[in-house]
Design brief:
Number of strands of chain C: 3
Largest sheet of chain C: 3 strands, parallel
Largest interface: A-B, 56 and 99 residues
Shape of chain C: flat
Structural class of chain C: alpha/beta
Chains: A alpha+beta, B alpha/beta, C alpha/beta
Radius of gyration of chain C: 13 Å
Strand order of the largest sheet of chain C: 2-1-3
Largest sheet of chain B: 7 strands, mixed
Number of helices of chain C: 2
Number of helices of chain B: 39
Oligomer: heterotrimer
Number of strands of chain B: 62
Helix content of chain C: 25-40%
Chain lengths: ~60, ~1400, ~70
């Protein structure tokens, strides 16, 4: 464990998991860097039509 | 947010990492981009749209999807295309090819003429090295780049292209030679504002282009036009003005020229060096061509021999034919393959009757009376490869022979004629007779004198001379300015350029063939032979370009972008490396769908009607390529029959390396089938071919059952192959049923349910970070640290942790956030920022003074709606004090001026007529706050998304609509009141109900982050059901890990544990709960801000399969107990039987208990480990070892565990007779009953929840039909309730194994923490409010509210006892209670009746 | 009949249909301009009185979506 703890977190990937992690951390008082390889976040979930089992719109 | 980025490396340790990230530019300024998509309209580069899985196209400038965040467009670029790199002048080939493809010839010329002033000339005679580099060669043949350049010049007169020049300067430059180098230098100097004079020795300008190349290849008028283009820029050409003794370099300087550029070319032919060369009838090729080209004639005799194999030889030969020679023979000493002349030229020469005598070298010119009469030749043969890379010809001794000729023309090479330069001081020459120059600046040894072109290189290509001229021009300008001539000009060599990958199934397309003048029409004239492409074929040819660099840098977008978000500067952005310091890292890089292309038997790549499930998602999506219209791809007909194949790229070691189960495919296939039926109607036949149906998630089994009821066919089978049917769009599916029977069925479409796999780049990243991976390339984690990687401080969530669905990803994500938070607790709030507060102006009781701001949004609104008319109209509306229009209301400077105007004009209400409040309301509200206005005194009129964009063909009606919308917004805003956002303190304590694995994990996480936790457990010890479990699926011993967890929870100073405790009362709401806990009848009241429900579940006591009749018939947990106690009787077990789904997936309990398949298999393996000779049978309905649990199933089969499937309507029968346990089951493979005598029978009994109605009522949270709590959102809110401040984890949510319970415990803690960390809760202004005087206490509002916001005041209260009130903290402002209130007692602030009516009444002019 | 252009008033839920109408714009889908949208926080907010009022103001059709 480092002596000087930094209050920021890097989240690698802007899909549903990365976004959720980033939101939780930011709302908990940590500075978050959200890194995404494409030009926009959203990941694969944004490409899905509906989600099971409720058939809600994925978007 | 760092988009377009990739993590390169991580150094340091947990708590303090140094991360380097490579960020590829967006090439568009996101702050300025308004997402108007004007750039898309003009972008010529179409690429397959990854978002639609290639089923649609997008441009190189794009936005991933309509709702994408960030909303700005981005341009995709790769390295400079190979064609551009191959071009000596570095022409932007891809750019002009794309422009030609669009028919934008002028734009194409503009791109070409950035570098090259002679498009029509080079479009004809360039040797096009670019085409050799063209990656289209890997598909079929290169794009006809040169011919496309010519097409542009054919279709638009280059003289008409506006050439931007800098202001003209006084200094002048002298250029010697008007060939391509000299012309290019003059052109580029002129563009930089420097005039030049070209001194040309010959009577016509153009150098070798004029005198070296015959008119049949380069018509004179083309050359004349393009020289005119250069002289139009103020360049003077002095013909017949050779440089020599009278006019030397010194004289030029004396005449006032500031610099001299020498480009005299290489016009002197090399002599053959054989006897007889001086004879009459022997001459040099270049001299011959010069004469022919300048005068249109030159003497030819009957039989002409030409020595040489280059283009000059061919030009001489073809000219000689045209001038009337009867017999023209080229003599070349090597073979055809080594000929430096272009193949098409050689071919044309042969077509025209030229003979080529290969492998022959002249030895002597035979003369008679000083005239040529013949040529003695020697036969050659090719030996080893020489320094030129070609095989060296050597004479064959004694093979001499003679040929009769009348004329001999030597064309074996040229060199510069240096006679005029030999005496110039300071200029040095190489041993090849060329000038020595600095390779970058082209400066000679003499100051102010530069040289280039063939003079410097020896005979080379025209485009090289053009490049040299351009470079010299740059040097000359720098020289004249006294600047460093080399700075920034070192060539950058990219060793490993990356290009757009060639699509694996790129269709072949023939290269367009250049139309030619018929051979018989070429005789006796110099008419151009190549006729040029027609437009259509040229454009089709241009479309063959593979767009190697993605963006072609045509810069059309730069011109189209009105807000200047994309400029030449943004286009030039460079990749940057960002260094970050972070305390922790969370890896959520996701997965890639498996690519089924390698599975030949599924013909995925070969048949358009075999698609992947991801393709299917896009086809079903309303935002997809067909707008949600379900069609088969081959003919766009609506399908009647669709098949899904499961486990494509999963559970398969034969055809791919993925032996794990991808966990999600069964469910998504069912979903797609159900949705497909919704789209296409009930008649659509949907069949799912599967091995095991894995619907192990919450409410999944119900979904499966419903799909069966709705007619989706489930075919338990293995698919053998798919075959196309001739003359039909359908495909034939061959499959093997469970009983071994082979069947064939035809379908319109086949959907391959592709699995999840880790992208190789992600695996490489994991390797760089030093993270251990599993067999399936997922990040390795432990059951008790489910989101922790092998490297401390780096956590993992989502599909990289293992194949999983969305809810589980969301759970993991929150869990990883919690884990990172636990690590960094001491540094919390150290790096986050907060904003200054501007004091709010009181506007209550003021007359409304409305400011209306109408936005042009560039041309997005103003192009359709008459913005000024709307603004003028707004000024006439009541209460409107100020009206203004803005080009872009959202730009930062406009925001600042808005703030000013609000203050200056003392406005107290604001309307912005622009885009949509969904994206821009917060921005403008911020502006109001900065101006000191309450942010609720604002309204937007949506005149873009819902007006100009959708009515672009009806500008009048669109303007009328805009006026209406502005009027409605103004009427509403006048009634707005400043709304307060109440502030409430949050009690930092948490109450966790349930001390099992999940509850303890939640409690530990919160406590580690510094919050006091009250942990309430019903039993007298912590640990719950985990005490009864032996091992986890990954083989960790539960007992010791559980003991560690209990020990930490008990010793954590922030945790207070209440054992044998019961919750008896809960009051309050989010942030401020008061709960009463009763322990041994002592009641304690706990104040807490949040609550976590982790009440767990238990094993069902079976009531079937003779349970209880024999001590050897056990439940799963009872067997675990025996393992834990190391019961000696286990060693004697000879035959063990497991029966699955005991109480699960039954009509009375229609859910899957998720854990039992894995657990029974693990236990079966344990029995095998203890007694390898024992026989173990598992009787199952579907094996549901999801994710990497599949390895256990595989191992069990390998170890000889026998799996026998049964169905619900034919369950196994168990009898106990004479101390014998007998199990009878119908084997589906054999089709007949099998009887097994067992000495151990384990019943995998269902997991049932402990959820209690009382607790549900305490926290106003719902319970589903199966007794599990209902979370806020099945996908996005799995660990929390709709009721604010109440969270959920563990089996109380749904049956789950230990790792998932721990993750959800941490997730619940993470979600709770986001609330606790805020310390204060602010209510929204848009909340409901009861006017108690009007309330009739009917209770409708209390019963309808999904958020439990309304309640009755206590009857003891002094004011309004018993009346309803709405807790603004819980209210979400939906207005349900408002609409439901029979007394009209409830108002919704911001959307009050009078406000909505004001909008309706303002409709009057509209409707 | 073909002359008849119905005038439509729509009440769209802020969270779904209103956003969908925005997206129709992003997709440049064209539709007739004789529709006026009133944004409401949720269709739960709808009161029958709004619908009646819209008709009284001259609407030929009222569309509530959410």
């Amino acid at each position: 464990m480092a002596n000087e703890v930094v209050g920021s977190v890097l989240v690698v990937g802007g899909g549903i998991a990365g976004m959720q992690s980033a939101l939780d951390l930011a709302n908990a008082g940590y500075y978050v860097y959200l890194q995404e390889k494409s030009p926009a976040i959203g990941g694969v979930m944004s490409q899905l039509d509906k989600t099971f089992p409720t058939n809600d719109c994925a978007m | 947010m760092i988009t377009n980025a990739e993590v390169l490396d991580v150094e340091g340790e947990e708590g303090n990492f140094k991360v380097s990230i490579r960020k590829t530019p967006r090439y568009i300024d996101p702050a300025a981009c308004t997402s108007c998509s004007d750039c898309v309209e003009v972008c010529p580069v179409s690429l397959p749209n990854e978002y639609d899985h290639g089923l649609s196209e997008r441009k190189a400038t794009y936005k991933k999807y309509a709702q994408a965040i960030p909303g700005a467009f981005a341009i995709q670029k790769a390295d400079k295309a190979p064609c551009r790199l191959a071009c000596p002048a570095g022409l932007n080939v891809q750019g002009y090819v794309q422009m030609v493809g669009q028919g934008k010839y002028k734009e194409a010329l503009k791109i070409i003429m950035e570098d090259l002033p002679l498009p029509g000339v080079l479009g004809r005679i360039c040797p096009h090295g670019c085409e050799d580099a063209c990656r289209r060669c890997e598909v079929d043949s290169p794009v006809a780049i040169r011919d496309l350049k010519r097409l542009a010049a054919d279709r638009f007169d280059p003289r008409e292209v506006e050439i931007e020049c800098q202001p003209t300067r006084d200094e002048k430059v002298a250029i010697v030679g008007s060939g391509p180098a000299g012309l290019s230098a003059a052109y580029h100097l002129a563009r930089k504002g420097i005039r030049s004079t070209i001194f040309e020795a010959l009577p016509a300008a153009g150098g070798m282009l004029r005198v070296g190349i015959p008119a049949h290849r380069l018509p004179r008028e083309v050359l004349d036009q393009e020289i005119e283009l250069i002289t139009n820029l103020g360049v003077e050409i002095r013909l017949n003005t050779p440089i020599g003794d009278e006019l030397g370099v010194d004289e030029l300087f004396d005449q006032g020229y500031k610099a001299v550029y020498l480009a005299i070319g290489a016009h002197k032919g090399l002599s053959l060096g054989i006897p007889g060369e001086k004879a009459q009838g022997v001459r040099q090729g270049v001299d011959f061509l010069r004469e022919a080209n300048l005068t249109g004639k030159a003497e030819v005799r009957r039989r002409v021999a030409i020595i040489g194999g280059g283009n000059v030889a061919i030009d001489v030969a073809r000219s000689a034919v045209r001038l009337g020679a009867e017999e023209v023979t080229i003599v070349y000493r090597r073979s055809r393959a080594e000929m430096p002349a272009w193949e098409e030229e050689v071919q044309a020469a042969e077509d025209e009757g030229v003979k080529i005598n290969f492998l022959a070298a002249p030895q002597e010119v035979l003369t008679q009376d000083g005239k040529v009469v013949g040529l003695r030749l020697v036969q050659m043969k090719l030996s080893e490869v020489d320094s030129s890379g070609r095989r060296r010809p050597i004479p064959i001794p004694g093979s001499e022979y003679d040929m009769e000729i009348d004329q001999l023309i030597a064309a074996i090479g040229q060199r510069p004629d240096l006679s005029s330069l030999e005496n110039v001081m300071g200029i040095e020459f190489s041993r090849w007779g060329t000038t020595e120059v600095d390779p970058i600046t082209y400066a000679t040894g003499r100051e102010g004198v530069f040289a280039g072109g063939d003079l410097q290189t020896g005979p080379w290509v025209a485009i090289g001379a053009v490049a040299a001229g351009r470079e010299a021009a740059e040097s000359i300008v720098r020289y004249m300015d006294g600047r460093d001539m080399t700075e920034g000009r070192e060539p950058i060599v990219n060793e490993n350029p990356t290009y757009r990958p060639i699509p694996p199934h790129q269709a072949k397309a023939d290269r367009a063939k250049m139309p030619e003048l018929a051979v018989e029409k070429r005789q006796g004239n110099f008419e151009e032979v190549e006729l040029g492409f027609a437009e259509a074929e040229g454009q089709a040819e241009a479309h063959r370009c593979l767009n190697c660099g993605y963006c072609c840098e045509c810069y059309q977008c730069v011109e189209a972008c009105k807000p200047h978000a994309v400029t030449l500067e943004t286009h030039a952005q460079q990749t940057e490396i960002i260094e970050l310091q972070t305390g922790s890292i969370i890896l959520a890089p996701g997965f890639e769908p498996f690519d089924p292309t390698p599975f030949d038997s599924y013909i995925y790549a070969k048949h358009p009607n075999v698609i992947s499930s991801m393709d299917m998602e896009r086809l079903l999506s309303a935002s997809g390529p067909t707008g949600g219209h379900l069609i088969r791809m081959s003919d766009h007909a609506e399908p009647k029959k669709i098949a899904w194949f499961q486990c494509v790229g999963s559970r398969d070691l034969n055809r791919c390396d993925n032996s794990y189960c991808s966990s999600v495919c069964c469910m998504y296939a069912i979903k797609e089938a159900v949705i497909a039926k919704e789209h296409a109607g009930d008649d659509l036949d949907c069949a799912i071919f599967f091995m095991d149906m894995r619907t192990h998630g919450k409410d999944f089994e119900r979904f499966y059952n419903k799909a069966q009821d709705s007619g989706v066919r489930f075919v338990r089978s293995r698919v053998h192959s798919v075959d196309p049917i001739e003359d039909s769009e359908e495909v034939s599916v061959r499959y093997v049923r469970e009983d071994g029977q082979i069947e064939t069925e035809t379908f319109d479409m086949v959907v391959l349910s592709v699995g999840i796999q880790i992208h190789p780049e992600v695996a490489a990243l994991a390797e760089r970070l030093g993270i251990e991976m599993t067999e399936g390339h997922f990040a390795k984690s432990g059951s008790f640290q489910p989101v922790m990687t092998s490297r401390p401080g780096i956590y993992v969530c989502g599909a990289f942790q293992g194949p999983k669905d969305i809810p589980q990803s969301v759970v993991d994500a929150s869990a990883a956030a919690a884990a990172a938070g636990e690590l960094l607790a001491e540094a919390r709030d150290t790096l986050t920022r907060s904003k200054e507060v501007v004091p709010e102006v009181n506007v209550i009781n003021e007359r409304p003074r409305v400011g209306v701001f109408v936005c042009h949004c560039g041309i997005n609104i103003a192009g359709v709606v008459d913005v000024q008319a709307v603004a003028d109209y707004a000024a006439t509306l009541p209460y409107v004090e100020y009206v203004n229009t803005n080009l872009y209301s959202c730009s930062q400077d406009t925001q600042d001026s808005l703030t000013e105007i609000i203050r200056e004009k003392n406005l107290n209400r604001v309307v912005v007529a622009a885009c949509t409040p969904k994206t821009h309301e917060p921005l403008f509200q911020e502006t109001l706050i900065n101006a000191g206005l309450n942010k609720y005194l604002f309204e937007m009129a949506n005149i873009r998304n819902q007006d100009s964009w959708v009515h672009k063909n009806n500008p009048e009606m669109a303007t009328a609509k805009a006026k209406d919308l502005v009027r409605m917004a103004t009427a509403k805003v006048a009634l707005h009141q400043p709304l307060g956002e109440a502030e409430l303190d949050v009690n930092p304590a948490a109450l966790v109900i349930g001390g099992g694995i999940a509850g303890m994990s939640a409690a530990r996480s919160l406590a580690r982050q510094g919050y006091p936790v009250h942990l309430v457990e019903r039993e007298d010890n912590l640990g719950g059901q985990a005490h009864a479990i032996y091992r986890t699926a990954t083989g960790e011993m539960v007992g010791e890990n559980l003991a560690k967890l209990i020990q930490e929870v008990e010793s954590q100073e922030n945790i207070t544990v209440y054992r044998n405790a019961e919750l008896t009362k809960v009051e309050g709401f989010v942030g401020n709960f008061q709960s009463t806990v009763s322990v041994d009848e002592t009641e304690t009241v706990i104040d807490h801000g949040v609550a976590v429900v982790a009440t767990g579940g238990r094993a069902l006591q079976p009531e079937e399969y003779a349970y209880g009749e024999d001590p050897r018939i056990l439940t799963s947990l009872e067997l675990d107990r025996k393992f834990i106690e190391d019961d000696p009787s286990l060693a004697d077990v000879k035959t063990a039987v497991f029966i699955q789904c005991v109480g699960s997936r039954e009509p009375q309990r229609p859910y899957c208990s998720r854990v039992c398949c894995t657990h029974s298999i693990e236990n079966a393996l344990e029995l095998k480990r203890r007694n390898p000779d024992s026989q173990v049978f598992i009787l199952y309905r579907d094996i549901r070892t999801y994710g990497e649990r599949e390895y256990l199933y595989k191992e069990a089969r390998e170890k000889g565990v026998v799996f026998i499937r049964f169905s619900l309507d034919d369950k196994p029968e168990v009898s106990v007779q004479n101390g014998q346990i007998s199990v009878t089951v119908t084997d589906h493979v054999l089709g007949r009953p099998v009887e097994i005598g067992a000495d151990l029978l384990t019943l995998a009994s269902a997991v049932v929840p402990n959820a209690s109605e009382k607790l549900a009522q305490f926290f106003k949270v719902p319970v589903n039909e199966d007794g599990f709590y209902v979370e806020k959102h099945a996908k996005l809110g799995p660990s929390e309730f709709a009721t604010d401040g109440v969270f959920l984890c563990g089996i109380a949510h749904y049956p789950k194994p230990i790792d998932e319970s721990i993750a959800q415990g941490q997730a619940a803690a993470s979600r709770a923490l986001t609330l606790l960390a805020r310390e204060k809760i602010y209510t929204s202004g848009h909340v409901a409010e009861v006017q108690p005087a009007m309330c009739s206490q009917c209770g409708v509002c209390v019963s309808v509210c999904p958020y439990s916001a309304p309640s009755f005041r206590s009857l003891e209260e002094r004011f309004w006892p018993g009346k309803a009130e709405v807790n603004p903290v819980l209210c979400k402002g939906c207005g349900l209670c408002v609409a439901s209130c029979r007394s009209g007692a409830i108002r919704l602030k911001g959307f009050d009746n009078d406000q909505i009516f004001a909008q309706i009444f303002s409709l009057d002019e509209a409707v | 009949m073909s002359e008849f252009e119905p005038k439509i008033v729509s009440f769209l839920c802020n969270w779904c249909s209103y956003g969908a109408a925005d997206l129709a714009g992003v997709g440049r889908m064209e539709y007739p301009p004789n529709i006026r949208v009133i944004r409401i926080p949720c269709t739960g907010r709808m009161s029958p009185k709004f619908i009646l009022a819209a008709f009284r103001e001259g609407a030929d059709g009222v569309w509530v979506s959410g």
